[in-house]
Every structure is written in C-alpha cells, then in structure tokens.
Amino acid sequence: LYGGGLGQLGRQALAVVVVAAYAFLVTYGIGKAIDRLIGFRADEEHEQQGLDLTVHAESAYDHGVLGHGAPLSGTPKTPKVHA
C-alpha cells in the first residue's frame, strides 16, 4: 500500500472503530440523560389529539377549507382612486 503499509492501515482501521464506539457511547449517554430528565415522547393523549394543536396551538394543514387563499393572478387587487 502507498505511504505506510499494512501497519498504518491497521492503525487507521483501529482508530475508526475507536472513534465510532466513542461517538456511539457519548450519543447513547446523552440520549439516556434526556430521556430520564425530560423524555423524548409526548403524552399519549396529546399524540392522539395531534401535537400541532396541543403543543403548538396551531394547525399545520387545514383540511376543512377548500378554495380559499390568494388568487392566482399576478396583478394585485387595489382599489381605484378617484381624484
């Protein structure tokens, strides 16, 4: 192999495994700490009602309204001014 042989490749492979294990363990620890302190999930009742309404007090999609909104015309509707 270019520039270091199999010994260098082995050390680099070991470093990859060590860094991956370290990243996994730290992330796992942070996740466990968050889960114990504040939790990841919302209450089941809030999930059933929809988190948009119960947590954020808004609706992401208003499924009951059709045909409302801005017109597709590029010219805005402005009142005529009579001088």
UniProtKB/TrEMBL annotation:
Q: Which GO terms describe its molecular function?
A: ammonium channel activity
Q: Lineage, please?
A: Bacteria, Bacillati, Actinomycetota, Actinomycetes, Kitasatosporales
The protein's UniProt keywords, in alphabetical order, are:
Membrane, Transmembrane, Transmembrane helix
UniProt-listed InterPro entries: Ammonium/urea_transptr, NH4_transpt_AmtB-like_dom
What is the official name of this protein in its record? Answer: Ammonium transporter
Which residues are in the Ammonium transporter AmtB-like domain?
3-61
Q: Which GO terms describe its cellular component?
A: membrane
Q: Where in the cell is it found?
A: Membrane
- Identify the species of origin: Streptomyces beijiangensis
Its membrane topology: Multi-pass membrane protein
This protein's superkingdom? Bacteria
**Pfam name, any one:** Ammonium_transp
> Where does the chain cross the membrane?
12-31
